[in-house]
Specification:
Elements (H helix, E strand, L loop, with lengths): L1 E5 L2 E13 L10 H4 L16 E12 L2 E5 L21 H7 L9 E3 L12 E4 L2 E4 L5 E5 H9 L9 H5 L1 H5 L3 E4 L9 E5 L8 E7 L2 E5 L8 H4 L11 H15 L5 E3 L8 E7 L2 E5 L1
Parallel strand pairs: 4-5, 5-8, 8-9, 12-13
Antiparallel strand pairs: 1-2, 2-3, 3-4, 6-7, 10-11, 11-12, 13-14, 14-15
């Protein structure tokens, strides 16, 4: 278990899966020969073989007496077209409870966007039905993200993601559709980082003079700091996603803001520093 203290706020990482993957599985340009040009990625973020080290994890924010779960990974028992994600039976909920966060104690669930690996544990299978995993939580979805998916569900690629992981939350009356700059409290708020999806958000934290931001999929892998133009094959609007990365890195470069990557392998968090006319993550 890894955690960070940001002023009075604590952020804890709960891992569902850590595994290296071939770069083009996520980023078409992340070929071994291209990654080899970015020397600082080894050993933390790229293997000697030239594969991306990736992580699927949730982040629990403890703020003002509330427990806020950011992104809910892939989930169990769900039919998915990606073999490693299909009908999983992993220990995520046990690990969450062992870290001190039984599912009944979560107050809010934030989904940075509604892709398959960010909504899976929104629900769990009980007697053949998908029911909310976190029954005492309010689930916060950016309104424009929800509306875009309702207009074009795009479920065929990974499986019935909205059907089994999102709409049951709405039907249970636990969803709040909020603005993309929604402020949960004075320490935690949304930062619009559109492009990867129509309503994608990152999560900002500020407390007692310390600052952090949780990326979501605005940046999938630290290599994109060195190559902001490397798109993800799943980007909704690749041009906007690229511009969002350039703007984000310029905003936080050479500051004390801790950047916590939603898919970054350990050490998972660091600060953006300038590297010529590009950027790198200093951990």
């Amino acid at each position: 278990m890894t955690s960070w203290q940001i002023g009075d706020v604590r952020v804890t990482k709960i891992v569902e899966e850590d595994a290296p993957v071939p770069g083009p599985f996520v980023l078409p340009d992340a070929l071994p020969e291209n990654l080899a040009e970015i020397g600082w990625l080894v050993p933390n973020f790229v293997t000697e073989k030239g594969w991306l080290k990736m992580s699927i994890h949730a982040l629990v924010i403890e703020s003002r007496g509330r427990r806020i779960l950011v992104d809910t990974c892939v989930g169990n028992d769900k039919e998915r077209t990606t073999k490693a994600w299909n009908l999983r039976t992993g220990p995520f909920l046990r690990d969450l409870a062992a870290a001190g966060f039984p599912r009944e104690t979560i107050d809010y669930v934030i989904c940075t966007h509604l892709h398959v690996d960010h909504v899976g544990w929104n629900t769990m299978l009980v007697d053949g039905r998908w029911v909310p995993t976190f029954p005492n939580a309010r689930y916060l979805f950016a309104r424009n993200e929800w509306e875009a998916w309702m207009a074009d569900p795009q479920e065929d690629h990974f499986g019935p993601v909205m059907q089994d992981s999102v709409t049951p939350i709405v039907e249970a009356g636990l969803a709040d559709l909020v603005d993309p700059d929604h402020r949960l409290n004075d320490e935690v708020w949304f930062e619009p980082t559109h492009g990867h999806t129509a309503g994608h958000i990152s999560v900002r934290i500020a407390s007692a003079g310390a600052d952090a931001v949780i990326t979501g999929d605005m940046t999938h892998h630290p290599c994109q700091l060195a190559r902001p133009e490397w798109r993800c094959y799943a980007d909704y609007d690749a041009a906007q996603a690229i511009q969002t990365r350039w703007d984000f890195y310029a905003r936080y470069v050479d500051t004390d803001v801790l950047v916590i990557g939603t898919h970054f392998a350990p050490p998972t968090a660091g600060r953006i520093v300038r590297d010529g006319d590009r950027y790198r993550l200093e951990c």
